[in-house]
Every structure is written in C-alpha cells, then in structure tokens.
Input
Amino acid sequence: QVQVVESGGGLVQAGGSLRLSCAVSGSIFSLNRVGWYRQAPGKQRELVADIIPAGAINYADFVKGRFTISRDNAKNTFYLQMNSLHPEDTAVYYCNARVRPLTDPLSDNDYWGQGTQVTVST
Output
C-alpha cells in the first residue's frame, strides 16, 4: 500500500535550521499533492506548505520566507527546508500525500506519515 515516511526532525536552537524529508512509496497511480503540516501540543493541525506536480507551491503566512518546500521527483521524496527557526515552530511535522492509488484510480485519497518532532529551544 501507500506509505508516507517523514524524517529529519530534532532539537535545534532558535535561529537554526532543519531539513525534513518525506518519502512517498507504494501502489501509486498518481501523486497529486504533497503538503507539510504541523501540530503543536493543544493546537489543531495546520498547513505549513504544499506543492503539486506542476510545481505550484503554497506557504502559510507564518513561514515568512523562512521555509522552502521542494521535491525530488526521481525519488518521490519531498523536503521542507526550515531556516531561522523560532520556538513557536516547535511541533510535530506531518507529511500528507494526496494519491490516486492503483487500486482506485478514479479517486484521490490522503495518506499521512507518522510525524517527526521538531523542537526549537530559546
């Protein structure tokens, strides 16, 4: 089946950088969107950035040019480069892949990774 696996989280000081990776694999007819989300304790999950195959990218306002989403199409891997991190960026970061699976190529389904913890210290 479809798998979404995030990696790259960790502990970093304010002002530092991290690069998150999202690997998408499995029985995929088409991969139509990938989004990075985050969820801080006690808060709702929120969109950070997303990208579609044609290359169009959306960023949340709070990114303010600090984060960059990119992809390696050959690997079906997506990245979130996070620079100038703030303590308020602390959250579990999730990758979401919108996929048309081979088993149901007429409909899109969303698949979530397990999340990777990002902690920014002050």
